[in-house]
Amino acid sequence: MKGMELAYPFRKTMAISSLTPSRSNMNVILRWLRFRIFLCRFLIPLFLFFFNSIPFFT
Fold first, then answer.
1. Is the residue at 41 inside a domain?
2. Which label site among 2, 17, 26, 29 has the fewest CB atoms less than 10 Å from its CB?
3. Within a domain: residue 26?
4. Per-residue pLDDT reduced to its tens digit, 15-34
5. Number of compact structural domains in the chain
6. Average of per-residue pLDDT across 3-24
7. Looking at the domain assignment, is residue 24 inside a domain?
8. Residue 38 clears pLDDT 70, i.e. is over it
9. What is the 3-state secondary structure (H, E, C) of 1-57?
10. Is residue 47 part of a domain?
11. Where are the transmembrane segments (predicted)?
């Protein structure tokens, strides 16, 4: 599930970059992809850890 969710925007950005193969657009796509990887790797586990530490179901 997580692998597919990470692979889908990458395919989308590859289609966008093949439509407009300019250097600046590629840099924007790479920056967005790097930001998304940073988001998935750091902020989502941090949020899940914070979410699990709150005792909701007690």
1. yes
2. 2
3. yes
4. 555 555 567 777 888 888 88
5. 1
6. 57
7. yes
8. yes
9. CHHHHHHHHHHHHHHHHHHCCCHHHHHHHHHHHHHHHHHHHHHHHHHHHHHHHCCCC
10. yes
11. 38-57
Higher pLDDT, 49 or 3: 49
- For tokens 């590859």, what's the residue? 14
**Would you state the pLDDT for residue 1?**
46
CB within 8 Å of 29: residues ≥ 6 apart = 13, 16, 17
**CA–CA gap between residue 39 and residue 44 (Å, rounded):** 6
Contact call for residues 40 and 6 (beta carbons, < 8 A): yes
Contacts of 6 (CB under 8 A, 6+ apart): 36, 40
Query: Over the range 12-25, which residues count as b (16 or more CB within 10 Å of their CB) and which as e?
Result: ebeeeeeeeeeeee
At 49, the amino acid letter reads F
